[in-house]
Amino acid sequence: MKIAIVTLNDNCNYGNRLQNYALQVFLKSYADIVKTIWYDSPTDFKLKDIMNLKSAIKFIINRNGYKNYLKKVYVKECIKTYNIRKFSQKYIVTDFVNELDKIVDDYDYFITGSDQVWNPNFWSKSANHANIRFLRFAPEEKRIAYAASIAIPSIPKDKEQFFRESLNEMKVISMREKAGAELVKELTGREVPVVVDPTLLLSKQEWQKIELVPEWYKGEKYILTYFLGNPSPIIENLAKKNNWKVYNLMDINNLDLYASRVEEFVYLIEHAELVATDSFHACVFSILMNTPFLVVNRQQKGVADMTSRIDTLLELFGYQDRYIVDGKCNLSDEEILHMDFSDVEAIQKKEIARSTAFIKEALNIND
Questions:
Q1: Strand 94-96 to strand 33-38: parallel, antiparallel, or no bridges (unpaired)?
Q2: Could you give the strand order of the β-sheet that contains 293-297, starting from the edge strand earlier in sequence?
Q3: For helices 344-362 and 280-288, what crossing angle results, to 10°?
Q4: Running DSSP on this structure, what letter comes out for residue 275?
Q5: Would you say the CATH fold of 204-344 matches that of 2-43+91-201+349-362?
C-alpha cells in the first residue's frame, strides 16, 4: 500500500514538523510507502529574496528601519528555518509535486492532517490551498482526514458552502478538536470522531530517540517559555525563588534559543523544571515527557480564538486547571511544579488504540 500525507508545508514551525514525522511513523505500520506531498514552494529564506532593486533602495534609505531588520530579524529567521529544514530532510520522506493531479494513481490513499489544514486563515488562494488540503485533486474514495484541525470557532459565511461540499466529498473524517467535530456536524450532519494529534501516537521513549542536547546547554535548571509577550509574575517569581534560569524560545535576541533545532525543542521541554506556553505542541510534549507546564492564555482582541485545540487536549488528560489567565493562576507554587502524570500512559494507550481502529477502517484493513 502507498499513502501520501498532505499537511502544511512549513519549515518554520516545530509542532508542524513533529506531527508530520509522527504521522509518517504511525502509518508505516500499515503501508509499504508513506510520503509527504510538498506542494508549496520552499519556505526557506534566501539571499535572492532580498537581492533586488527594491530591497537595495530600502537598504540605502533605511526605510522603516530596514537595515536593522536585516541584521536583527532576517538573518536569524534564515538560520532558524535552515535548522528546522534539516529535520525535514533527515526524517520526512517527501515527494515534491507541482501538478497534484498527475500523482493520483501513484497512491492508494491521500491523508490530510494533522495540524490546521482546514483553517482558512492559513490558505493562499493563489496556491490553491483550499482545494489541496481537502484533497479535491484525488478521487473521493481516496480522501481521508486524520486529526484535521479547523482551529477557529466558526466558518466564515462566504466559505460555508465550500466547506460543506468538501466535507461531504471526504471518504472518512476525523478531527483533532471537539469544536471542529461540532462544526463538521453543523455543516454536514456527519458525526465524526475526535482523535489525538499524531505526536501523541508515539511514546515518550520513541521521542527520546530523536532528542539532541543543545551545544550551549551546561546542565543548569531552567523554566522554558514559548509564547509571545512578557513572562507573567508567576514565572518570574518561581525562577527567582528557585534560582532557575528563564529560557525563552521566542527571544530573537538569543540566537541559540531562537534558532533551536527541532530535536533540541523536544529535549528542552523534557528537561525543563516548568514549561509556560500558548503552543499546542509544547503542551503535548510537556505531557508526554511528564514536565510540569502552564498554558498562557493571551487571546487578543481582533484575533481569532484558536484555544479549542488546547482545551480538548487538557480535558483529555484532566489538566484544565493549568491556565494562566490575565497573568494569574489558581494553583499554588507547589501545585504548579508537582503535576500528577500517573494516568498519562494509560490515556495515551487508549487513544492510540482508538486512532489505530480509525486508520484501519479508513484504509480498509481487516485483521
A1: parallel
A2: 245-248, 222-226, 274-277, 293-297, 323-325
A3: 120
A4: E
A5: yes
DSSP per residue, 91-153: H--EEE-S-GGGGGGG-SEEEE-SSSTT-GGG--TTTTHHHHHTTTTS-GGGEEEEEE---SS
Tell me the three cell numbers of residue 86. Answer: 534539516
254: helix, coil or strand?
coil
Instruction: Compute the CA torsion angle 224, 229, 230, 233 (nearest 10 deg).
Output: -80
The DSSP bridge pattern shows strands 245-248 and 172-175 to be unpaired
Closest CA to 121 of 297, 303, 267: 303
- Rounded to whole angstroms, the Cα distance separating 315 from 334 reads 21
**Which three three-digit cell numbers place residue 203?**
511514546
**Domain covering 204-344 in this structure, CATH number:** 3.40.50
Of 363, 364, 367, 293, the residue nearest 27 (C-alpha): 363
**Which of 364, 10, 358, 45 has the alpha carbon at shortest distance from 176?**
358
Q: Whole-angstrom Cα distance, residue 46 to residue 65?
A: 20
pLDDT digit string (tens) for 41-51? 765 545 445 44
Q: What predicted TM-score, i.e. pTM, was given to this entire model?
A: 0.91
C-alpha cell, 180 = 471542529
CATH tag, 2-43+91-201+349-362: 3.40.50.2000
d(CA 222, CA 312): 28
Q: What are phi and psi of 201, to 5 degrees?
A: -85, -10
Domain boundaries, the chain: 2-43+91-201+349-362, 47-85, 204-344
Segment 253-309, tens digit of pLDDT: 999 999 999 999 999 999 999 999 999 999 999 999 999 999 997 554 333 455 788
Strand, helix or coil at 245? strand
Q: Do residues 286 and 292 lie in contact, with contact meaning Cβ atoms separated by under 8 Å? A: yes
Question: Where are the alpha helices (H) located in 218-343, listed in sequence order?
Answer: 233-242, 255-258, 262-270, 280-288, 308-317, 333-337
Contact, 227 vs 278, CB < 8 A? yes
